[in-house]
Amino acid sequence: MFSWWIAWLIIAIVMLVIEIATTGLTTLWFAVGALVAMVLDLCHAPLVAQISVMAVISAVCFTISMIWIRPRLEELRKKNAQRTNADRVIGKEGVVIVPLNSVEGKGQVKVAGQVWSAKADIDLEEGSKITVKAIEGVKLVVERAN
User: Fold this and answer.
1) Are 13 and 35 in contact (CB under 8 A)?
2) Pure H helices in the chain
3) pLDDT digit string, tens, across residues 3-35
4) Phi-psi region of 25 (alpha: psi -120 to 50; beta: other; left: phi over 0)
5) What distance in Å separates the CA atoms of residue 118 and residue 136, rounded to the nearest whole number?
6) Kind and range of the H or E run holding 114
7) d(CA 49, CA 55)
């Protein structure tokens, strides 16, 4: 005779392993549903009830997570983000010191006394005045200064 509680336990463990690997707060709720279904099997509930309860519990927990838990975790993550002060150069003006190639995304600029790799939508020659629009990775995104 097959014991469904073993199947539910395996499903819960697999879902927890996936959750640990991805940390997306998605498969965790299927693990919770599987554990509840496992308890129902141990209480000799019919298989249809186990599957139904597993689906409902997982859906409810997932919905609650997306509406209340995940947004709060995102707020905490943003609040604890380390600022590097690199963003202080956004909006500053500088000068091109190595010509910027818009196709290859190569070139260098000097802004606030610092040399940065940079890219622009248009080619810019050495000596051109630029304004920093953004930072992408370790490159400044620049445009020709007005």
Assistant:
1) no
2) 4-22, 28-42, 47-64, 70-79
3) 899 999 999 999 999 999 987 788 899 999 999
4) left
5) 9
6) strand 114-120
7) 10
